[in-house]
Amino acid sequence: MSDDKEKAPAPKASGGGPGIVGLILPAVLAAGAAFGGAKIAGASHAAPVAAAAEVAVAKPPGPTLPLDPFLVTVPDANKKNHPMKVTIALEFGDGPKAPKEEELKGLVPRVRDTALSYFRTMSYETVSDPMANDKIRTELVDRFKASGTPAERVLITDLVCQ
Question: To 10 degrees, the CA torsion angle through 125, 127, 128, 130?
Answer without folding.
Answer: 120
